[in-house]
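Reply to dn_fold:

You asked what the input looked like. This is it:
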Amino acid sequence: MIYFAFVHSHLLYGIEVYANTSTDHLSKLIVLNNKLLRILQYKSIKSHSIDYYKTYSTLPIQLLHNYQILIFIHKYVYNKDKLPRVFSNYFEENSLFNCYDNTRQKDHFHTYTVLSDLGKSQLNIKVLNYGMLYL
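and this is what came back:
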């Protein structure tokens, strides 16, 4: 309960934005989180970090970031009213770009081709990439 009250809640706040970077920038946070979990569970230094997360039924920071993005996509598709108004037209559907009415992908989100690493890290592009894989 201590971990979820003081640490996990802070990790979740804004994770969609701050964890949208390389693991090099998150390495100190990942090490600190693993250390806290190890100390709270009285595990030895030689134990695997994945065991810490399994015991508490949570995810490492990178996977927690992906999970929160998937939750965002689910809310956007099924419960738009639970998101702020800013996100009401965050994605465009293929029906806006096709002149054909009855295509199989008319209700899918329109995806853009991005070549730069900076472009690929934009939240709406990343969300679309995850969304196409899991929806």
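Residues 77 and 135 are 9 Å apart (CA to CA).
Hope that clears it up.
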